[in-house]
């Protein structure tokens, strides 16, 4: 009885897809969970990628065993597709991270996709086979990447449309929007303004939260008496800054229990205690320098509204890119075929 049920399940499974392609569907629920977490916290735990990498290695091994000794056209094509995915697409994730275009989780996600999705899967549902649109190279991870980039373009477009609806039309309206200053501790992104104008390299709001928690103060307290808090002698004990995430510790202040230091730095050359903050913490506070932190604090102390470039949850368009890739296929080649170029 058990053997007949197993045979039936195996028969149904193989009529839908190969075992390796069925395993690859596991990326969808994992990335769905990661997308929700990215929206809420902008933090993705690193331990979710290893199981998917193992699944990818198993699926890749099953394909290799099925196509070995690679002396056929399909076997050689598999080697080319796997090579492009593993040695071109995967390094792109690392390169984008090094250049600052990706966060660490985004890079790990793309590397994982390169390992688990090197070739186009095929799923038979009824008389239809999915994905609908293939590409000449058939490197599925590259299709996921291009679909993700296309879908991610909706984010700056939506920012522009929001600003346009408010009557704001300028060079910065595609990258940022004005928000209430008091809401900064609960937001993700970067300041898009300095005291002298607009910037693409403003203070990271995670770093701002780290600073507030380190001082054990709210932004409202800082803004209520900036002259006093600018003086480094006003900093007595300091606290654990966490990693600056909104879901880690208090959202708007640093009232955590653990004391990190009770020393006082009376240096008049360190307004806001910016240099001391960066020296005491572990890490770099997202590339923040003392000058950047001071500039950011001086910019927000006396304004009610400020332009902010929101932190894009890139895992979200990556998940949507996966869904589109598994169902429709390659958006770019679909469009090129529609206009008659392919």
TrEMBL record:
Residues 26-154 form the Prepilin type IV endopeptidase peptidase domain. Its EC number is 3.4.23.43. Residues 225-254 are annotated as: Disordered. Its main location: membrane. The chain crosses the membrane at residues 12-36, 48-67, 73-97, 109-133, 139-162, 312-338. It is found in: Cell membrane. It comes from the Archaea. Signal peptide: none annotated. Pfam families: Arc_PepC_II, Peptidase_A24. Keywords: Cell membrane, Hydrolase, Membrane, Transmembrane, Transmembrane helix. InterPro entries: Preflagellin_Peptidase, Preflagellin_peptidase_C, Prepilin_IV_endopep_pep. The keyword Transmembrane helix applies. It is a multi-pass membrane protein. It is an enzyme of class 3 (hydrolase). GO terms for cellular component: plasma membrane. Residues 299-331 form the Preflagellin peptidase C-terminal domain. GO terms for molecular function: aspartic-type endopeptidase activity. This is Prepilin peptidase. The lineage of its organism: Archaea, Methanobacteriati, Methanobacteriota, Stenosarchaea group, Halobacteria.
